Amino acid sequence: xxxxxxxxxxxxxxxxxxxxxxxxxxxxxxxxxxxxxxxxxxxxxxxxxxxxxxxxxxxxxxxxxxxxxxxxxxxxxxxxxxxxxxxxxxxxxxxxxxxxxxxxxxxxxxxxxxxxxxx
Length: 119
Description:
Blueprint: E1 3-7, E2 10-12, E3 18-25, E4 32-39, E5 46-51, E6 57-59, E7 67-72, E8 77-82, E9 91-100, E10 105-109, E11 113-117
């Protein structure tokens, strides 16, 4: 089985920074896609940033230029560096692994970590 362990959430002031980490362990396929989603109260869960199985990246328009996703493939670990944080970034952030290729994969989710941006 696959386990995702997240860390790095917390309370930060507007304009501040946080770095989230997610380490995947277990039977991780060579072809996989790891990324970050978030869900704020009353809103749908949305993509924040993610890698595809071929190594390209996708970002939500609202975070482009502020957030950066990175990874260590050997350790199956993905990071989200969040800079210039805004109150509207407040949400529960979930690490996601799509374990397989783009047509045939299994979704795994981390437990979620709260990010609160407030003065």
